[in-house]
Amino acid sequence: MSDLMHWLDGSSDDQQCGYVAIVGRPNVGKSTLLNHILGQKISITSRRPQTTRHQILGIKTEGDVQVVYVDTPGLHLNQNDKAINRYMNKAASSALKDVDAVVFVLDRTCWNEGDEHVFEKLQHVNCPVIVAINKIDILGDKEDLLPFLQKVQAKLPDATLVPIAAKHGRHVERIEETVMAHLPQSQHFFPEHQITDRSSRFIAAELVREKIMRQLGDELPYQMTVEIEEFDHDGKVLHISALILVERNGQKRILIGDKGERIKKIGSEARHDMERMFDTKVMLNLWVKIKSGWSDDERALQSLGYDGLD
Question: Any idea where the domains of the chain sit in the sequence?
């Protein structure tokens, strides 16, 4: 009877499947690494910290092997004063529970207190750790790499170290090969063609937020988020209305720009990415609204999709 049930549920002794957390301090290239592995953008990127705010699953299935990568916000030090920072740290820390492997991303030969903070978290995991030393393509002195590798190996003697350039995909396949070696035998958790657990509405909101962060940089503080109010197909056209929330009137003026030029540019770039992502024509409308104190209001955050703060 057990053999019959095994056949009926579609499982296979040859299948491998497991969860892999991608962790690191902010802005080391975690999302860039995930996007390259998947061959598609599902996690937004910019040079600013706090770009990734949520756990995002990236699912890659090849034959009998399915890897469920968990992209996480960067673990922050001394930034638990606001609710949104507490949310991001909790999202990153919780990703380390019940995974089959961890990819710890470092930025070249730099090991600072942020990396040390992540390292301390890794002392409590009971799974293999792969250290991805990222951005080696822009490493100033290549001779600094070997002593740094020795230093990291001394701190994590059981870890596998892989120097990579995630932006260009250099040596990323070694990360994937090492991950696959640690996956358990298990039937797949997701359908073969599914690449993320996030909805199209979520991805649309993130694409708008990415364009804002890339264009404004330090001009706009991080008290900004995006909420999708409309997401409707009308024949061959996808109509999307996105509400951008800021906390002060000055931030709203910066975002809109002179005669609305900045918000138009943000909308144009976001719409282009959406059309490529959703493979359809997109009509995108952007609105800016002031909602004072939203980033430190747990009820407001939960209504905006930042769950799990309690």
Answer: 2-181, 200-303
Share of the chain above pLDDT 70, in %: 77
Domain 200-303 superfamily per CATH: K homology (KH) domain (3.30.300.20)
**CA atoms of 187 and 190, how far apart (whole Å):** 9
Q: In what order do the strands lie in the sheet with 129-134?
A: 56-62, 65-71, 16-23, 101-107, 129-134, 160-163
Q: What is the enclosing helix (H) or strand (E) of 92?
A: helix 83-94
- Burial class for 175, CB neighbours closer than 10 Å (0-12, 13-18, 19+): buried
Token couple for 30: 């975690």
Task: Please tell me the predicted confidence (pLDDT) of residue 309.
Answer: 43
> How do the residues of the chain divide into helix, strand and coil, expressed in percent and rounded to 5?
40, 25, 35
Cα 39 to chain centroid distance, Å, stands at 14
Instruction: Note the pTM of the prediction, 2 decimals.
Output: 0.80
- Does CATH number 3.30.70.1230 belong to domain 2-181? no
**Cβ pair 229, 303 in contact under 8 A:** no
CA 275 to each of CA 165, 221, 268, 279: distance values in angstroms, whole numbers, following the listed order: 28, 28, 11, 5
Whether 200-303 and 2-181 are alike in CATH topology: the answer is: no
Find out whether 291 and 301 touch, Cβ atoms under 8 Å: no
Instruction: Tell me the C-alpha distance between 100 and 153, whole Å.
Output: 20
CA 58 from centroid of its chain's CA atoms: 9
Q: What is the mean pLDDT of residues 290-294?
A: 78
